[in-house]
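Journal club prep, shared notes

We agreed each person brings one worked example of a sequence with its structure written out as tokens. Mine is DNA polymerase. I'm keeping it raw so we can talk through how to read the token line rather than staring at a rendered picture. Sequence first:
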Amino acid sequence: MTKLIYGLCDMQSFYASCEVASREEYAARRKEFDDSTDPALVVSGDPARRSGIILAATPTAKKFGVSNAMRLGEALQLNPRLIVVRPHMEFYLQVSVRIQEVMKQVFPLQEQFSVDEGFFAFPHPSELFPDPMAAARKLQQKIWDQFRIRSRIGMGPNKWIAKMSNAKAKKTPGGIVWWREEDVPSLLHPLPVEDMWGLKKRAETLRTEFKAQTIGDVARIPVGRLKARFGVWGEVISRWSHGEDISEINPNSYSVAHKGFSHRTTLPRDFYERSEVAVVILELLDEVCYRLRRAQQSGRRIGLGLTYERLTGGFWKAKTLTTHADCPEQLYPELLSLLDKHWDGYTGVRAVSVGVDMLQFSSDATQLSLFDDVPKRDELYRAVDRIHERFGETSLMRAVSLTKAGQLRDRSSKIGGHYA
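Then the structure, token by token:
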């Protein structure tokens, strides 16, 4: 009987690979299945700041102990001869689009998962795809021939197993792994519970509260107990532990309508002062509110996320408001409330996120107050938006953005938080 085989194609050290492949002196020496032919190169947010973080590193650089999210200064202590390049986000996005197009040429049923990953599916057995391993190799070869970028491909009977087998493909010579449906239990169940993709902190709960050491241990936990502890996630965890997944390929996953707006920035150093973190929150909120107004929408739930020093730990907390809002004066106090409630006040902050969701069109949400001159406030923001659109967002800034904590001037020259 013909069934779909699902695959996940992932680019190796994508940002760093783009930089190596785009430089003739390195690309000419690079071999597809020999990581040692890469230079010890890292992509850092700002090479001029040793406090900047590593965004990507080649396998050669990682052999010295360099890792993503490490401070550049620490990486240079491990290897002072590292080649350090500033990120070029616009270039990476262009390459990403072209790679996704190649993937779609080989496998028409395709879904972009991230900037450097894509799911695909194809029927098997079929005349078009008689050999799954050969089909995967065809895609891998096309990506290498056109972009000189290495890729790893995991395949299985569903998307989740494709993700799990992809993790094994990264450590397999040739970079392609296919987990057949009948082999899934024997391959999946011996793995440690931490290897279950998508669990995050829930893996620690499974280990400590349920004494689950392996994925097989999780499969033996009654689904009712998992649902009692994790809610709807309990059923998902149970399915995954049995190698099951009901999600399908969504070719339009990158073009769905907005359910919310958010902005995130990684800071050039750890922030320890509340006043500094508050400045960054306000700058991000201004950007979120601008996007809300452009979409003629307002939101009823506000969210704040902090990532702590060394990019480990943190939180994301949200609060539902009594009314919809689209301007900082309404939302900023709520964000400060979340900050004071959930941040301990002394752990260093390295990244900040602000988001607004539960949207509706502003024309349906406006509620006049006896104490607010709403029309004048709205006209003020429309004027500010027009200035920003014509002259750039740094043409008119809040005074706090000129302080040491302000990030707007630096971030305005970036794409997705990184230099274009």
